[in-house]
Amino acid sequence: MELSQVLLKPLNTEKSVRLADMQQYAFMVHPSATKPEIVRAIQTFYGLKPLSCRVLKIQAKENGKRLKKHAGKKALLTFPKQSKFDPHKIK
């Protein structure tokens, strides 16, 4: 898979804003992306190496017949304390 397809978008939720204080950032990633591909994409596009990478699968939620939330994959990345990381600015 090409690295440009691995990271879909940074997540801006209440929880992800709280995690940013602890140098942890959340990204939606491609459903078939692996941890090494995610770390390589972050290094390529942001120029920083994360300390850890955790991946979570998100299940779809339905409300009757309507789809309320789509399925996907989320990555939580932890960076060193002294690093200045902005998920919205690509290098």
Describe the structure.
By secondary structure, the chain is of the alpha+beta class. It has 2 helices and 6 strands. It has a 4-stranded antiparallel beta sheet with strand order 1-2-6-3. The chain has a two-stranded antiparallel sheet with strand order 4-5. The radius of gyration is 14 Å and the shape is globular. The model has no long low-confidence stretch (mean pLDDT 89).
Helix/strand layout:
Layout: E1 7-10, H1 14-20, E2 24-29, H2 35-46, E3 52-58, E4 61-63, E5 66-69, E6 72-78
Antiparallel strand pairs: 1-2, 2-6, 3-6, 4-5
Please sum up the structure shown.
This protein is an alpha+beta fold.
Characterize the main sheet: 4 strands, antiparallel
The portion of residues forming beta strands comes to 25-35%
Please count the helical segments: 2
Fraction of residues in helix: 10-25%
**Coarse structural class:** alpha+beta
Mean pLDDT metric: 89
What is the ordering of alpha helices and beta strands?
Answer: EHEHEEEE
Summarize this structure as a short list of keywords or feature phrases.
91 residues, alpha+beta, 6 strands, two-stranded antiparallel ribbon, four-stranded antiparallel β-sheet, 34% strand
